[in-house]
Design a protein that fits this description.
14 helices; seven-stranded mixed β-sheet; Nucleotidyltransferase, domain 5; alpha/beta; about 325 residues; two-stranded parallel sheet; about 20% strand
């Protein structure tokens, strides 16, 4: 039976002052005839885009909605770990997760004292037995539908690395695009022969993607299908394969793979922030944790001045350029 790849990409942490920028991709090997179908419909027995605590199905939705719906990180973590386990991966720690989904990520954290302490055991909030039970059901749904999950493919960029790239490019949207294109490359390498349909949440407000796509994918002929306020779509052809890439506003509410990529990005970023807050709160009594977003990050930086000064931390490693 002919198969194709349905994939999605989304980010978390493009705007914050503290913590990493994370871009994730998900991919599913599906029967070719299902390439244009909705995976929420295909997997309706076990998954839903509706975020309700009472639902027996697994919510796969915009990560911000999911994060707000649970107690802290509970709902977000449950969906992330269930989907990982359904694909055959059961990480027991934060670093085990990073080593599996993002190449060399742990090595890149060595410059950051707040990321080099004790590992974080997983799950943090969700119940392990519930994860296993739900993962078995989702895996059976995958098999019933003839779907094989690949990845996820995650790229992380901690604060100092982010600042260096922004200084070099003078444009943080270029940095974000570069990360997304690395995810595209990883997806294509994981599926070197199949036709690919790749759905991406619109990156940094950009509307035209011809130049970065032709630079990143040499040897492909690019056809512009549409460039509008809400959708930018392209078809890339080479003698041996075809790749369709679509950038959409609100992609995480329109497409299952993008929603799941959003969840992985948010979960990986939240684990970094968990390590961040654990480190700094241990070093200054009474310091309140932060999610790293602008207003609260400014509050945190003012509150944490004594701890930051005591460690003589280079601000370029701690605070991201805007």
């Amino acid at each position: 039976m002919p198969v194709a790849i349905l994939a999605g990409i989304d980010e978390a942490g493009f705007g914050p002052l503290l913590g990493p920028l994370v871009v994730s991709g998900t991919a599913f090997r599906v029967p070719d005839r299902q390439l244009g179908t909705c995976l929420w419909d295909t997997l309706a027995l076990t998954c839903t885009k509706t975020v309700r605590r009472s639902s027996r199905r697994l919510p796969v939705a915009d990560s911000k909605r999911l994060h707000k719906s649970g107690s802290g990180m509970d709902a977000l973590e449950r969906t992330a770990l269930v989907m990982l386990a359904a694909g055959g991966f059961n990480p027991r720690t934060w670093r085990a997760l990073l080593n599996e989904v993002t190449p060399d990520a742990c090595a890149g954290l060595r410059d950051y004292a707040w990321y080099t302490g004790d590992d974080i055991e997983l799950p943090i909030t969700a119940m392990a037995d519930q994860i296993a039970t739900r993962a078995n059901a989702v895996a059976m749904d995958f098999r019933r539908a003839g779907i094989e999950p690949l990845g996820p493919f995650v790229e992380t960029l901690p604060e100092g690395h982010y600042n260096r790239l922004v200084r070099n490019t003078r444009n943080k949207s270029v940095v974000l695009m570069g990360m997304a294109l690395r995810v595209v490359d990883r997806i294509m390498r994981a599926a070197p022969e199949e036709r690919i349909r790749l759905l991406v949440d619109r990156l940094g407000g950009r509307k035209r993607y011809r130049e970065p796509l032709t630079t990143a994918l040499p040897g492909f002929d690019l056809e512009i299908l549409e460039e509008t306020e809400s959708r930018s779509a392209y078809r890339l052809r080479r003698s041996d394969r075809m790749v369709e890439i679509e950038f959409r506003t609100k992609g995480d509410s329109r497409h299952f793979p993008v929603a799941l990529a959003s969840i992985y990005s948010k979960y990986v970023r939240e684990l970094h922030m968990h390590a961040f807050n654990r480190f700094w709160c241990d070093r200054q009594a009474g310091l309140k944790p932060t999610a790293g977003y602008y207003v609260d990050a400014k509050r945190w930086l003012a509150d944490a001045k004594p701890a930051i000064a005591s460690l003589a931390v280079d601000e370029a490693l701690l605070v991201r350029q805007q």
